[in-house]
Amino acid sequence: MNFKKLNYIFFALILILTASCSKDRSTIATLKATSTVKGVALIGLGTPVNNLATMTAADAGSVTITTAQAAVTSNAGNFVTFFDPTEIGATTKIVKYATGVDPSATFATDTAYNNEAITDQDFFIIRVTAQDGVTVLCYKIVVTVTPALSNRATVTSSAYTVSSGGTASETITNVRDAISKSIFLGALTKGESHQTWNSAGISDPVVTNDTLVVTAQDGTTVVTYTVTMNAAYNLRDSGPAGGWISYINPTYATDGWKYLEAAPVSTEWTLKKWSDPDTTLIGTNADIGKGQANTTAIVAWLNSQGETDRAAQLCDALVSGGSSDWFLPSKDEL
Fold first, then answer.
1. Cis peptide bond N-terminal to 277, omega within 30
2. CB of 52 within 8 A of CB of 125?
3. Of 230, 204, 228, 225, which Cα lies nearest the Cα of 215?
4. Can you tell me the distance from the alpha carbon of 293 to that of 298, in angstroms, rounded to the nearest whole number?
5. Which helix (DSSP H) or strand (DSSP E) does residue 311 occupy?
6. Can you give the pLDDT of all 334 residues of the chain as single tens digits?
7. What is the C-alpha separation between 265 and 130, in angstroms, rounded?
8. Alpha-carbon distance 330 to 260, whole Å?
């Protein structure tokens, strides 16, 4: 046997096998859809391109994270940023840019992302190089950073005293007697606009130990406010809507209302006729407690006649002190 000849054959086989292995290396340069930014799965990968210079806004994928997530730099636990190639053996380079930056000319020398914090509309460029070392795809992922959900479940009021102890049980005091539910709630202001209120525990009219349950935007922070009523109003006291108590009803238990409140001085209806020409409307009543019903009837008649800018209409449309149930007084109320 010729050993020299065998050596040539052996080395020839090695070259053939090596060439065969090189030829079979993968050309897959894609990313997995399960890639994450700060632990959040991508909304979409977008469309990869071979050349960064040809990439457009329409090619971008996206992800949405919260402000709190964007600030985390640990890259651990639930906050991992991981752009995972589809094919084992493919390699990636990942660089983060601020919005408006053109990465095409500098990407090759730019520093790879190292878990830094993210600002709204920052974007990632991910270059995936396949096993063959030649096939390349580039992805763009735009990051939207949304504000963290508020945990504010507080309320304030210029009319009442609202405690602010920072606990789950707070109080609303200095609430005058016999105030209606709508006026009471109208004089409270949300500490954050996305709060939800459960006012089922508020009576109409409001009474001591009624409760208002306030839930913050985050859905978990809850504060229960317990109401304490003050003593009854006296004549000429300032009323709940900023007017003056002008009458105390002795039969409120059966009538369903306790006070008449005169609105603050207004010139809106000074010298306004109730109709033109003056007309007597059948069915109105001069008694105390009838002003609201009279006003409703008068406004309906005026509207049917095409009348505008009349005293009853102006009173009926008035919104003052958080209240919209003002009316033109009857003769005896006046």
1. yes
2. yes
3. 225
4. 9
5. helix 311-317
6. 444 554 544 444 444 444 444 457 899 999 999 999 999 999 999 999 999 999 999 999 999 999 999 999 999 999 999 999 999 999 999 999 999 999 999 999 999 999 999 999 999 999 999 999 999 999 999 999 998 889 999 999 988 899 999 999 999 998 877 788 988 999 899 999 999 999 999 999 899 999 999 999 999 999 999 999 988 888 998 887 888 999 999 887 677 678 899 987 666 666 677 666 677 788 889 999 999 999 999 999 999 999 888 888 988 998 887 788 899 899 999 8
7. 81
8. 12
Q: Which two tokens stand for residue 306?
A: 């095409």
Quick check: helix, strand or coil at residue 141? strand
Question: Which residues, including other chains, have CB under 8 Å from residue 128's CB and lie 6 or more apart?
Answer: 29, 30, 31, 48, 85, 90, 91, 92, 136, 137, 138, 139
CA distance linking residue 223 with residue 197, whole number of Å:
10
pTM for the complete prediction? 0.48
What own/partner pairs with CB < 8 Å and gap ≥ 24 does 197-203 have? 202/227
Token pair, residue 210, equals 């009624």
Distance, in Å, from the CA atom of 16 to the CA atom of 321, rounded to the nearest integer, reads: 93
Look up residue 280 and give its DSSP letter: P
